[in-house]
Specification:
The complex is a heterodimer of chains A (about 450) and B (about 240). By secondary structure, chain A is mainly α. Chain A has 20 helices and 3 strands. Chain A has helices at about 1-10, 20-40, 45-50, 50-60, 65-110, 115-150, 155-170, 175-180, 185-190, 200-210, 220-230, 235-265, 290-325, 330-345, 350-360, 365-375, 385-395, 400-410, 415-425, 430-455; strands at about 40-45, 325, 330. With about 240 residues, chain B is of the alpha/beta class. In chain B, about 45% of the residues lie in helices and about 15% in strands. The two termini of chain B are about 25 Å apart. Classes of the chains: A mainly alpha (about 450), B alpha/beta (about 240). Chain B: It comes from Paenibacillus lactis.
């Protein structure tokens, strides 16, 4: 304790009033020395090339071109993802269908009981196969393209462009960076909010991160948009319409992010946005092959593994719930019927709401659970391609409104279990974790309710 | 096999994570924007029968207590005392990078500087004289390009030599104006008596004069902890965050 006392005495002896001067002269000397060293060790042979980044920035962050270029890039990414994913998706699903045929034959050959075939093939295998064939292709395109843009240095320019919008809604400009991370995975984006120093603004970023669709929700959005919104078109136009609808969803998500940030910063999280410096790094030509490989291997496989790990047990659970009967109805159907009236008011149905609820651990499995739910009710169709899939939905009474509201609900509803867990870990607050669940859920319910009621009142469905 | 600890420090977006990945074979997320690494990641790398444990510190512009990132990076260098602090500088923006380098040189003798992004500097027509810089800074300076795996062998060799004590450094220490130097000298003698050789007394003196409350608090914790017989106590809390 001796040392401590002496340190205490020593710090007490330092006059506090000259601190500002000290910092100033320290920083001044540091800068002077750095410049001196640079003058001695660095020679620049080509001044012209140094300013190339600046010239590019004048275009990418210009008031006139900044937003159009940003939207165009986003549009191109979606178009590539959707156009490129269609063919491999249906190839994968027919491949799995082919395997399923053999597996079923094998089960019959050894006279395996029906329930075992049900659990393993119709539950586990089919669920997993669906997740892989629907999710893998778009992810294998989206992540590498996004990573290329990120390594090129475009993300900080997006932050720069969006800065004013975020400031106006009382949030931190860096929130656009954490938002961009959310496109990949909301759970990881919650961690990335650490770059925001002010706790108030960080909380805004955490609470609103969920409004950008993560990889688990892209497939749902893309699939429903292409099946229901772009159904009247064909070929390239169809892809274009699908991409536009998906982009509309993303833009809506951003609008909701800004609105919620604004509302919160005027109420529960009052305060003025803090200043910060945003560094615009030089544009760097990414190592293209390396980036593509990394993004594919790391992100895609990681996401997929997670999907399969969660999807497989969920598939089994759904199958079991659908096949254990109380009275003459299965547990699943009891649950669905219970949810149905409320879901109908939102333009959904009981199955969809059930899928969202069972899908809490991971958004990836919402669609597979929904399909398993539908298929378990008896209309056991062999699903060979995307458009056979549409028939299943239509048979269950789907209209474009059902599809639209499911997309809206998926975009706006509560974060997945992993994200909620991360929010709790980062905030250590039960209250904020609960709010980050409750706010999106309330918004999702409200928006889908209004859309459904309006569409019905206007006689559109 | 001995394990040596190497801390990677540097400005944001100078390629620390890229170097980290290149050496450890791990897959930290990399990207061209500031603030990407928000927590400490660590990974292992074996070279000539030695093991290096790399710590990817968050990128910072300075090591004053401006934000949580800066504190994490600074506390690690001073209180955890890695065998080598590897400074990753951006060859295309050397002036800004050197600013941080000079601050680190005040904190520890065990520093190796690597000039990253040499390939890009070359493309931009920027030439950096590594020898001259090494002579001025008093520590090894190694040009590398982490993303092209260039210069990593030389770097590994130097790391090993420094860890085994075969390299002596004479790091450049900042000189301030006369009045400040006088006060620093006074405090330094006092502090030497209190902390001994455990922590860099001159640097602590400067921080005290700068009125760095947070550092003083951390230092008190450390001193109190060593009284109870454990240096590590308290560190785990400040550095508790890891990736996943």
């Amino acid at each position: 304790m001796e040392q401590l006392k002496r340190l205490e005495a020593l710090t007490g002896s330092i006059p506090a009033d000259q601190v500002d001067d000290v910092r100033e002269s320290i920083v001044g000397e540091l800068f002077k020395k750095s410049r001196e060293l640079c003058a001695e060790a660095v020679t620049v042979t080509d001044r012209e090339r140094l300013y190339r980044s600046e010239r590019l920035d004048r275009i990418f962050t210009s008031k006139l071109w900044g937003f159009p270029i940003m939207l165009a890039m986003l549009g191109v990414i979606f178009y590539l993802t959707i156009a490129g994913a269609n063919v491999p998706s249906s190839m994968l699903s027919s491949f799995f269908g082919w395997i399923e045929g053999y597996l079923t034959a094998a089960f019959e050959a050894v006279h395996a009981p029906d329930w075992l075939h049900g659990i393993l093939i119709l539950g586990l295998f089919r669920g997993t196969a669906w997740v892989i064939s629907v999710m893998l292709p778009p992810m294998a395109i989206f992540f590498p393209v996004f990573a290329l843009l990120e390594n090129y240095g475009y993300l900080p320019r997006v932050a720069f462009n969006l800065d004013r919008l975020f400031k106006k809604s009382g949030a931190h400009g860096k929130q656009s960076l954490t938002m961009a991370m959310g496109f990949g995975c909301n759970a990881a984006a919650i961690m990335s909010t650490r770059i925001i120093e002010s706790p108030r603004e960080r909380m805004l970023a955490i609470l609103t991160n969920n409004f950008v669709p993560c990889n688990g929700r892209w497939p749902t959005l893309i699939l429903l948009a292409s099946l229901f919104m772009a159904a009247g078109f064909s070929g390239g136009v169809q892809t274009l319409v699908t991409a536009s609808v998906v982009m509309g969803m993303v833009l809506l998500g951003i609008v909701v992010t800004l609105t919620v940030s604004w509302t919160l910063s005027k109420t529960a999280l009052k305060g003025v946005p803090s200043h910060y410096t945003l560094e615009l790094p030089p544009y760097r030509k990414p190592k293209i092959l390396n980036t593509i490989l990394r993004a594919t291997l790391d992100k895609t496989i990681y996401v997929l593994r997670r999907a399969v790990i969660v999807a497989a047990p969920a598939g089994v659970l759904t199958w079991i719930l659908a096949n254990i009967y109380i009275g003459d109805t299965s547990i699943l159907l009891h649950f669905v019927q219970f949810l149905d009236p409320f879901a109908k008011a939102l333009g959904l149905d009981g199955f969809i709401l059930m899928a969202f609820i069972i899908g809490l651990p991971a958004n990836e499995i919402v669609l597979p659970i929904l399909l398993m739910g539908y298929l378990a009710t008896g209309s056991l169709t062999e699903v060979e391609n995307m458009f056979a899939l549409k028939q299943i939905f239509v048979d269950q009474g789907w209209t474009w409104l059902t599809a639209l509201n499911m997309m809206l609900f998926s975009l706006l509803h509560y974060p997945c279990g992993t994200t909620l867990f991360n929010i709790w870990k980062e905030t250590k607050s039960f209250k904020w974790t609960f709010l980050s669940f409750a706010i999106p859920t309330a918004i999702a319910i409200l928006v889908t309710f209004i859309v459904a009621q309006a569409a019905r009142a206007l006689g559109w469905v | 096999m001995r394990t040596y600890t190497i801390a990677l420090a540097g400005n944001p977006n100078t390629g620390k994570s890229t170097l980290f990945n290149a050496l450890t074979g791990l897959k930290q997320h990399t990207g061209n924007w500031s603030g990407k690494t928000v927590s400490l990641a660590s990974g292992y790398y074996e070279y000539k029968n030695s093991r290096f444990r790399f710590i990817d510190l968050p990128g910072t512009y300075s090591l004053f207590s401006n934000s949580a990132d800066e504190e994490v990076a600074r506390d690690y260098i001073v209180f955890e005392k890695p065998d080598v602090t590897l400074l990753v500088l951006d060859s295309t923006a050397l002036e800004r990078s050197l600013n941080l380098a000079l601050q680190v040189l005040e904190m520890t003798d065990r520093v190796i500087v690597c000039l990253n992004l040499m390939d890009e500097a070359k493309k931009k027509g920027i030439k950096v004289d590594a020898g001259k810089l090494a002579q001025k800074l008093g520590v090894p300076v190694i040009p590398i390009s982490a993303r092209n795996n260039e210069g990593l062998d030389t770097l590994s060799e130097q790391l090993l030599l420094m860890c085994t004590g075969s390299i002596r450094t004479t790091p450049y220490r900042m000189k301030y104006n006369e009045r400040l130097e006088e006060e620093i000298a006074k405090l330094e003698t006092e502090l030497k008596l209190i902390v001994g050789d455990e922590y860099p007394a001159r640097w602590l003196a400067i921080r005290l004069l700068d009125g760095d409350r947070k550092l003083i608090d951390t230092l008190k914790q450390k001193l109190a902890a060593s009284d109870r017989g454990g240096m590590i106590y308290g560190a785990a809390k400040a550095l508790g965050s890891t990736n996943r």
